Amino acid sequence: MDRTGLAQVHRKEDIAVQELNDNRKFRIYFCASLESKQPPYIEHFDTVEQAQQAFETVANYTLYLHEKGLMKDDSNFGFIERFVHDEWLSIEDLADYQDKLSKG
Predict the structure, then answer these.
(1) Distance (Å, rounded) from C-alpha 50 to C-alpha 67?
(2) Is the pLDDT assigned to residue 26 strictly greater than 90?
């Protein structure tokens, strides 16, 4: 199943979570393995900086598990999204996004 399929499977659940967390406009979405039957790790945040810090922590932990041979499949992926106009949009270039925010 590709990334689009995963997003579609979890879309209704994600919207329900968003309704409970109206003030949390950012989230990380991380799938540890494309072969896994486990749902992706999704966590909501108030700011893009919080989301970035959590994303880096998850990514570094996954890298650590690979280096120690505790996680065999390295086909993982993840991204940061922002909730805009009732849908989650991926922030493709975080540095560019933060630059636009600082300029107003």
Answers:
(1) 26
(2) yes
